[in-house]
Specification:
Shape: elongated
Order of helices and strands: HEHEEEEHEEEHHHHEEE
Strand content: 15-25%
Radius of gyration: 21 Å
Structural class: alpha+beta
DNA sequence: ATAGGCACCTGGTGGC
DNA sequence: TGCCACCAGGTGCCTA
């Protein structure tokens, strides 16, 4: 489910257990995700301190004391699981001191591809069934120039995203606004769900050509995008607490959407009696209200 | 440069 | 229970 708000929620969940902490051991259980892992990734992650945990678009960036940065993308199905350290006690403790693993954790589950054991015994497990995710390592100094990051558009919650930018980028575009807002070169971080939610709130039909949106409605899109994402981050933060109480799984919260996934259900705009429709645009579902969105 | 379609991969769901 | 079609929150790459 990871769009910008979910990735930000994962980052915030990881922060207290990773930032400022040392990775005691890394296990890499397969050679690749979407692409091959960088050479010697496990070795390069072992014994280094995480000095900062950042986010750019849907990427999590962990700056390391080795002057490298770990880039993580969750793809479609990537998850992070935080397992607190289990206290060592009884006979097991004596045996454990012989090995490198000082804390008890369950055996890796299916699709647990990368495991980071922090110095205090907290385990962070990257699980990704579909393997559309990615990890890479690069020098921190040139992280912004990474091929996956270099061409990204502005952060929608940052100062570089504003009305004149959006106007300029939508100008002359013969593509549906749905596709334009999914284009990470125009804005970084929106995905299928939040584009649907944004267009519903902006009352713009997803198939409308980007170039044919009035100046006023283009201007209105900017705060709407910001609001939609900011509200989702807040919702993620509250669900984060819930998940930490249960199984520690990050990247997995569901909150109520106004249109996404609501095909056939009543439009939630007060006074509107229409129902939400679904159309397919470039292979992906768009949900909208035909009465409210033009 | 821009636009559209395909590919990558696994799992869940619902119909027969 | 099995089989099958379809669906899924992403995005790089290829083609005109």
């Amino acid at each position: 489910m990871p769009e910008l708000p979910e990735v930000e929620t994962v980052r915030r969940g990881l922060m207290p257990v990773m930032e400022g902490r040392i990775i005691a051991r890394a296990a890499v259980n397969r050679p690749d995700l979407r692409w091959p892992f960088p050479p010697n990734m496990a070795t390069r992650l072992t014994g280094v301190r995480v000095t900062a945990l950042r986010r750019r678009s849907k990427y999590i960036l962990a700056d390391l004391s080795s002057c490298e940065t770990l880039l993580v993308h969750l793809g479609m199905s990537g998850r992070m699981l935080i397992s607190p350290p289990a206290p060592i006690s009884g006979e097991g403790a004596a045996r454990e001191t012989l090995g490198e693993w000082h804390h008890h954790h369950p055996a890796p589950a299916k699709h647990d591809h990368v495991i980071l054991d922090m110095e205090d015994g907290t385990r962070i497990t990257f699980n990704d069934a579909r393997r559309f995710g990615a990890m890479d390592l690069m020098p921190t100094a040139t992280a912004d120039a990474h091929p996956l990051l270099a061409a990204l558009g502005p952060e929608p919650l940052g100062n570089a995203f504003h009305e004149s930018w959006l106007t300029q980028r939508l100008k002359g575009r013969n593509t549906p606004i749905k596709s334009a807002l999914l284009d990470q070169h125009i804005i970084a971080g929106l995905g299928n769900i939040y584009v649907c939610e944004t267009l519903y709130r902006a009352r713009i039909h997803p198939a409308r050509k980007a170039a044919r949106i009035s100046a006023a409605r283009t201007a209105a899109l900017v705060p709407i995008i910001r609001d939609v994402l900011a509200e989702a981050i807040i919702a993620g933060g509250s669900s984060l607490r819930d998940y930490r109480q249960t199984d520690g799984e990050l990247g997995y919260f569901q909150h109520s959407f106004q249109v996404y996934g609501r095909e056939g259900q009543p439009c939630l705009t007060p006074g509107c009696t229409d129902t939400i429709r679904r159309i397919v645009q470039s292979g992906r579902s768009s949900f909208y209200c035909p009465t409210c969105q033009k």
